[in-house]
Please model this.
Amino acid sequence: MLNGNKENETSITRFILLGLGNNTELWPFLFLLFLVIYLVTIIGNLIIILLVANDQQLHTPMYFFLGNLSCLETFYSSTILPKMLSNLFTGDRTITVNGCLSQYYFFGLQKNNYYQPPFNRGPVYCTSQKEGCENIYKPLTSWT
Model:
């Protein structure tokens, strides 16, 4: 059965992406639409991160988590959209196997960070009695 003969083996090096169909007249419009959405998302999240990091009044647990979410959203948006934009711009509808696997890995990794359930027990971060306390496991585990 296994005699070491490798004459009849095919290796897969690329996948063909068929998501947007064959209507190439829409591709320039879709490219501009997705580019604007991507840029607004990235710029908005970076503004939130910079504001939370630089303003001393925003150093509270709520804004800490908001900055954490904005950072994850930036990575989440940058996983798939750049490849889709390059496919729309060049007309090349293929992706390498390694590119597909890396997108799948990073997309799944970040998706798990978003929907990870909070912990009920564990160390907490308290700023004052008024503001309450937040569990510190959630932001720590979202980056692992």
